[in-house]
Design goal:
The complex is a heterodimer of chains A (about 425) and B (about 425). With about 425 residues, chain A is mainly α. Chain A has 16 helices and two strands. A three-stranded antiparallel sheet of chain B has the order 2-1-3. In chain B, helix 2 packs across helix 4. Chain B has about 425 residues and is mainly alpha-helical. Chain B is extended. Chains A and B meet through helix 1, helix 3, helix 6, helix 8 and helix 9 of A and helix 1, helix 8, helix 9, helix 10 and helix 11 of B.
């Protein structure tokens, strides 16, 4: 099979080459930075780190073209030329290096080939290894998330105390623009954010759990198969609508509607209220509850149902007293996943819940959530060492941790349930 | 005794009916909400599809200037001033000009550049009104408000009514919505830039997540030994599928932008972040569809001497492909509607130009909806609704593709 021999040579020479390229791309920015920094005039370096970083970053984006380096007017003509040459040689040198290595490896692999050489098995070994590396990507992503969150969070807690963050009841992350400003220090008590998140999640679950469960009961136990096949996908469209559409709907229609209704009843309602965001989020979450509950209720063994019906129970009694308890672990899993989804939902709350960190349980007032704060702290201009931006990563870590626990709990309960009946 | 039983039975039966009704009602409420959301978006978007404008006659014959030297802004201003405004001071003239879109000069430039023969002639050109004037023609104006609180003062209203009486006002389909990038002026803002940005982002997502997802699913399903490591990978993938999307945005910001120094606001970074999010969806779908291929196929192939690799790539994969593609499309559709992680990596910038490459600053369509929803101009409400409709329409097309694929190619075993 000559195909495999060829493939063997290609894989064993190109694979290291690709790995080199990936390493090269990931350190490329760093190397460019070093080259540029060596070319910056002394006068600029004296201006301090921020100036230097800024110049390095704009030079880095324009380094490919001598004309555009010159047009930035940061460097003198001489040092711009020298920078460009350095850059050119660095690139060309690296390219030659890679070509040499690849040719050399191809030569080695070619020498290995002979009649006795089992190319197919070797190729398959290499391929298997590549696939394994790919399957590690998901794990690397998780580690990437955890590491980057923890890294920034540790920096945050070097500036703000741990107990203030977890137990403080005052949240105003604005730090001073000028010295001695009133309220300049910024306070990072995250309790109002957590209660706001809980409030909105609770409202959304109050909507989603009953509606979702009853829909699931109807679809799985009462509806004819034809009706079920028709309505189930339609119900799932609710989960497919982009959340930004829900957010816009909540901000544009539901918020003002609640406000005017509340005012006609003599209540004070802010335009951005926890209720509006929670209601709309509840509707979005219905299919998350109903789909999985539907599946687990359908999976309850027929014998249990038949036994109950044979004893003379009505259909609803069978559902409430037999099927529901039997399916309970699965349903709990579905609800836990839905809660995790509600806590992590961003766009609806960003657009409809407001920014004010009020410590309140009143659903008619504006509250803020973990996700809203992450977005507001990180969108727009940001300096990377201020506690304000780092706080977003601390909140992100809390969010990741809570959803992780919920997801794992849900997975475990659903798996236990499956083992029992399937 | 029998009376007791009868009343009990009646109670039980009505409980039964009630219970069933609750089920139907819940389903109905959910479906009604779906209809309400879609129809309210549709209803509110209607004004965005038309624009009012004025047929202005342009006198180019009087100005014998070279083609490359026309001051279009001036030309528009002079020609508008020929309409009778009855103004004699500067402030009044300025107010008069403000009724027209500031994009009119660019449109005139494009018209003339496309058809240079117009130079030296008089011709009529459709000039868009500004958003306030446009809203006046669409909805009228609330006269009960005091003049100072209205967007248009009495004098401007008189002018606008005057145009109408002269028969100069015309309502046209708004092509701007589909052919322009973002703008601060609602009447010339369009979704094309955002749609292109979304497509570029999704393309990157597809390129990264499809091969990695499918190959790692193949590994886990067909080659992986059953040990702690592969168990751990599995739990990881399942968990990753349920991690809030905004956390991926944080990862993208910390890793891709701050650590690797990739450009902010670029579809490249957006695509990388979304592909990490889509990866678990593709892996799970691929594994499910590989599992649904009957074991007999695998065994038959092995029996005639195929290697494991050949079994997978020549037999299992072709049979599972429709399912894999359907799962991939559904994952991509989810990524297409996602906005939260894109906010964090800077794809919320105000981008007028239509992005031409993967590293140009860009926004995505859902982010455009978010940006417009935040705009104070009233005309943007209709624009935002129209943008959500475009978004939903594109998603329907994507999902329809998945359904058709499944219906047409899925093998039944």
């Amino acid at each position: 099979m000559p195909n495999y021999h060829g493939l063997f040579v290609i894989l064993s020479s190109l694979l290291p080459c690709i790995i080199f390229l990936i390493v090269f791309i990931s350190i490329d920015g760093f190397i460019k930075g070093v080259i540029i920094q060596n070319h910056l005039p002394n006068s600029l370096i004296l201006l301090g780190r921020e100036e230097v970083d800024f110049s390095v970053s704009i030079l880095r984006n324009n380094i490919h073209n001598l004309q555009s380096i010159l047009s930035l007017e940061i460097l003198s003509t001489d040092s711009a030329n020298s920078l460009y040459n350095y850059y050119f040689f660095y690139r060309a040198g690296f390219l030659t290096l890679i070509i040499c290595i690849t040719t050399f490896l191809a030569y080695l692999a070619g020498k290995k080939l002979n009649v006795r050489f089992d190319a197919r098995r070797n190729v398959e070994k290499i391929l298997k290894f590549i696939f394994f590396v790919f399957s590690i990507v998901a794990v690397l992503t998780t580690f990437g998330i955890i590491l980057s969150l923890i890294f920034e969070t540790v920096r945050f807690f070097s500036q703000v105390s741990f107990s203030e963050f977890l137990f403080g009841i005052h949240w105003s992350p604005q730090t001073a623009i000028r010295e001695g400003q009133v309220g300049s220090s910024g306070s990072f008590g995250a309790i109002p954010i957590f209660t706001g998140t809980l409030l909105i999640t609770a409202i959304s679950m109050l909507i989603a759990v009953p509606l979702g469960l009853y829909s699931a009961i109807y679809l799985s136990q009462y509806a004819r198969p034809k009706v079920r096949n028709y309505f189930k996908p339609i119900l799932e469209i609710l989960a497919g609508i982009p959340t930004v559409v829900y957010g816009f709907f909540a901000a544009l229609s539901v918020g003002p509607f609640i406000r005017s209704t509340g005012e006609s009843l003599g209540l004070t309602v802010s335009t951005e209220s926890a209720l509006a965001a929670g209601l709309v989020m509840g509707i979005m979450i219905i299919p998350y509850v109903s789909s999985l509950s539907d599946d687990v209720m359908t999976a309850v063994p027929e014998s249990l149902r038949d036994g109950s019906l044979a004893l003379g129970a009505t259909k609803s009694e069978t559902i409430r007293k037999v099927i529901f308890p039997a399916a309970l672990p699965g349903i709990v899993g579905a609800i836990l996943l839905a809660i995790s989804r509600a806590i992590g939902e961003t766009m609806i709350v960003v657009m409809a819940a407001g920014l004010a960190a009020n410590l309140t349980a009143n659903p008619l007032s504006a509250v803020t959530t973990v996700t809203v704060q992450i977005v507001t702290l990180l969108v727009g201009d940001q300096e990377f060492d201020s506690p304000k931006t780092l706080a977003a990563f601390a909140l992100g870590l809390v969010l990741f941790f809570i959803t992780l626990v919920l997801n794992i709990l849900a997975m475990v309960t659903v798996r236990k349930y499956r083992e029992r009946y399937e | 005794m029998s009376k007791n039983i009868n009343s009990m039975m009646l109670k039980r039966q009505s409980a039964e009916k009630r219970f069933r009704f609750y089920g139907q009602a819940s389903l109905a409420i959910a479906l009604i909400m779906l209809v309400v959301i879609i129809s309210s978006m549709t209803y509110r978007s209607i004004p965005a599809f038309t624009n009012y404008g004025l047929n202005l006659s342009i006198n180019l014959s009087k100005e014998n200037i070279a083609q490359d030297n026309i001051n279009y802004r001036r030309l528009i201003r002079d020609n508008i001033s020929l309409l009778d405004s009855g103004c004699d001071d500067r402030k009044c003239r300025k107010e008069f000009l403000r009724l027209f879109s500031s994009g009119a000069a660019y449109e005139l430039r494009d018209t003339i550049e496309n058809d240079p023969s117009l130079i030296g002639k008089d011709f009529s050109k459709f000039i868009l009104f500004s958003d306030d004037a446009d809203l006046f023609y669409k909805f009228g104006i609330d006269n009960s408000l005091p003049e100072s609180e209205r967007r248009l003062n009495d004098r401007e209203i008189t002018w606008l009514n005057g145009f109408k009486e002269l028969g100069l006002v015309e309502k046209r389909f708004s092509t701007n919505l589909f052919t322009n990038g973002d703008s601060r002026e609602p009447e010339i803002a369009g979704v094309l830039g955002a749609v292109i940005g979304s497509l570029l982002t999704i393309l990157i997502t597809l390129i990264i997540s499809f091969p990695i997802g499918v190959l790692s699913a193949i590994y886990l399903e067909s080659f992986a030994p059953k040990n702690k490591l592969t168990d751990f990978i599995e739990v990881n993938i399942n968990n990753l599928a349920a991690v809030p999307s905004i956390v991926f945005g944080l990862l993208g910001l910390a890793l891709f932008i701050n650590f690797f120094g990739m450009p902010r606001s670029a579809p490249l970074v957006g695509g990388c972040v979304l592909s990490l999010m889509t990866l678990p969806v593709i892996i799970i779908a691929t594994r499910a569809s590989l599992q649904s291929v009957p074991p007999s196929i695998r065994e038959a192939a092995l029996a005639v001497g195929a290697s494991e690799m050949q079994v997978v790539f020549q037999h299992l994969l072709p049979a599972a492909l429709p399912g894999i593609l359907t799962g991939t499309i559904i994952g991509l559709a989810r990524a297409f509607g996602e906005s939260a992680p894109l906010l964090l990596i800077g794809m919320v910038a105000f981008v007028v130009d239509i992005p031409g490459s993967f590293t140009d600053p860009a926004t995505a369509l859902p982010v455009q909806v978010y940006l417009w929803a935040d705009s104070p101009e009233r005309a943007f409400v209709a624009k935002t609704s129209a943008a959500t409709l475009v978004l939903i329409f594109l998603l329907i097309i994507i999902n329809l593709a998945a359904v058709i694929l499944r219906k047409k190619y899925q093998l039944k075993w």
